[in-house]
Each structure stands twice: as structure tokens, then as C-alpha cells.
Fold this protein.
Amino acid sequence: MTTSTKSSKVYLTFVDQWLDTLPASESEEFKEFAEYTPSIIEIWVYSGILGYNGTFNDLSRWVKMKYKKLNRREILNSEIAALHSDIQELRMAVTSGEIKGDNGAARLAALEKELRSHIEVSERLNRSTDKRGLILAGADRVMRELTNIFKDDPQFAEPIDNAMNAVWAKVYSEVSS
């Protein structure tokens, strides 16, 4: 999507256009946050606090285009699948006699222990990601509702903005620890 403004500046994405409306310091802070935060949900929530009104898909595409994100969950799941396959192959090798029983049993125990460890890490990662996402999504919803309630009353706009930024910083630091 390419858009232009009255100043004839051409934007490749709605996100770039939105970032241009922010003060330079906020725009740079957001870009740095987007670069170092692995979760698109957290980036979405933070963008909402800064007043982003575009779609989640636009933001997600922009993040993917600008910043390479490591998919830890996918990597961990592929390692779990590989370990499971290795265990099956080792069992077949022991059963067929290619590997002695005592050597196979020791290797099997080590692989199974590693598999259990990977599964435990995967479950922990899923729980913490889900928890953080829910907390941040709830905070985002509250902040958007407050903004909508007081949008027609200019005397509350700045205090509400300041309060939302303070709450965002506190909630984000608590769920990131």
C-alpha cells in the first residue's frame, strides 16, 4: 500500500505514515522497541498507547519487513520433533541389535531427559507468552476505553496520556521481569 500526503511525501506503509506524525523521540523509541521486542502483540499494544489506529496486519507486516524476528517457539518445537525422532531411531537400533542394550539404554535415558527438558521449556514459554499477551491486551483495552471516554474533553487529554504512559511502563516492566 503506497499513500501520499499533501506535502507529496510518499509512504510505503500506513505505519511509516503514522510514525511520521509522532515526535522524533517517540518514533525512535517505538522503532527501537519494535526491533528488540520478540512479541508482535507487545509491539501492537505499545503502538496503541502511542496512538496507532491502523490494523494489526499492517503493523505485523511492517515489523516483518523491517526487523527479523527469531521464532523461538518454532525452533524449540522442531528440536522436540528431532529429539522424538532420534529416540524412535535409537529404540529401533537397540531392538534390531545394532546397538548393545546397555549402551542404548544409557543413550535413550539421556535423550529422553533432554526431550522432557525441551518440552518443559516449551510449556513454560507458552505460559509466560500467553500470560504477558493477556495482561498487555487487557491494559491496552482499558487505555483505549479511557481514551474514548475522555476524547471530547480536552482538559483530560494530557493527564490521561501521561497516566497511560506511566501505567504502560509499570505494567510492561512487571510482566517483562
Remarks:
- The helical segments are 14-21, 24-36, 40-49, 56-66, 72-96, 101-149, 154-176.
- The radius of gyration is 24 Å.
